[in-house]
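Appendix B, example 12.
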Amino acid sequence: MHHQTQRLPAFLKRYFWDVSFGQLDSTRYPSFVVERILEFGDGQAVQWMRTHFSLREIREVVKHSRALSARSANFWTRLYHLDPREVRCLSRSFQRRRRQHWFV
C-alpha cells in the first residue's frame, strides 16, 4: 500500500530515537519501520503499521529480520501463523551467533 513519500506520524517518534525522524520515509525504508514497530510498538503503532503495510510485507519482515528479539519474533510468528523454521530470528544458528556477540 505504498504511496508517494510517507512521513511517519509524530506519535511514532519514540521508536526511532537513533535516526533523524523528520527524514525517515516509510516508502524508502519499509522493513526498518515495520521492524521497529514489531519490536517496540504499542497498540496505536501496530494499528498504524497494519493500515500502511500489507500483511505480506509485515510477514516478510518477521521472517527475515535480524533485529527482532526471540520474544517478539515468537509472538509475531504465532500471530501471523508463520512456520517458526522460516523465521530467521528463531533459528538455532542465529540464536547462537547472537549470544556469542553478547558474551565474547
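The longest helix spans residues 92-103. Residues 74 and 90 are 7 Å apart (CA to CA).
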